[in-house]
Amino acid sequence: QKEVEQNSGPLSVPEGAIASLNCTYSDRGSQSFFWYRQYSGKSPELIMFIYSNGDKEDGRFTAQLNKASQYVSLLIRDSQPSDSATYLCAVKDTNAGKSTFGDGTTLTVKP
Amino acid sequence: DTGVSQDPRHKITKRGQNVTFRCDPISEHNRLYWYRQTLGQGPEFLTYFQNEAQLEKSRLLSDRFSAERPKGSFSTLEIQRTEQGDSAMYLCASSSGGGFEKLFFGSGTQLSVL
Q1: Nearest residue to B92 via CA among B112, B76, B73, B70
Q2: Residues in a beta bridge with A55
Q3: Most CB contacts within 10 A, which of A29, A51, A59, A107?
Q4: Is A46 within 8 Å of B104 when comparing Cβ atoms?
């Protein structure tokens, strides 16, 4: 079992819809959680991070964390074709150096 | 500040040759990471530095791989006796550290081993 699991997709949503991306992790010691966006042929870029249980909103993006269920999600409201990319979930133990990544979910937003 | 810089962008080599990649992190960042990514997979951790000290190396990393960060500035990743399975995108990332650190990635070096 991988340490960080994501649905590989592809996930396809129409423009203007809500895209929901999910991630589960196995290490209960994980303390910080990140969502990176990776366009095809490009390197990952950070779009959201969350440390506490609950929701964190930033513009059209909302990250949700449930440590008891070891579950992280990313909601993208009013999805745009420019949101089409692979979304990588990453988790980190506060005391560890490295972030561990899932394999990503590929999102396609159709006009 | 121009971000994380990696060189070269692309490298084609023959099996058995040695290759070296360079990463220049964001200047004020004290942590530097190397990851490897293949198509359809997420970045896989290779090693990381805090200043000039190499603090962790993946247990999956072959002895053919070595990394340095002299003087805590740029870093190099060398692969000796390359194999076709080494073909991947090699990503460098830097951060300012801390428990809630955010990684800033370079554009990567795409290695193809023929």
Answers
A1: B76
A2: A64
A3: A107
A4: yes
Quick count: other Cβ atoms within 10 Å of Cβ A107? Answer: 22
For chain B, give the DSSP string: ----EEE-SEEEE-TT--EEEEEE--TT--EEEEEEE-TTS--EEEEEEETTEEEEE-TT--TTEEEE-GGGS-EEEEE-S--GGG-EEEEEEEE--STT---EE---EEEEE-
Distances (CA, A) of A83 to A74, A109, A110, B11, B101: 13, 7, 10, 30, 24
Number of CB pairs < 8 Å for A and B? 61
Q: Does A99 touch chain B (CB under 8 A)?
A: yes
Q: What does the CA dihedral A56, A68, A18, A51 come to, rounded to 10 degrees?
A: 20
**CA-based angle B59:A27:B99, to the nearest 5?**
85
Structure-block tokens of residue B36: 């490897």
Nearest residue in A to B38, CA atom:
A103
- CB nearest B42 (choices: A32, A97, A104): A104
Per-residue pLDDT tens over the stretch A22-67: 999 998 888 899 999 999 999 999 999 999 899 999 999 999 999 9
**Are A22 and A7 within 8 A, CB to CB?**
yes
CB contact under 8 A, B106 and A102: no
pLDDT tens readout for residues B57-101: 998 788 999 999 998 899 999 999 999 999 999 999 999 887 678
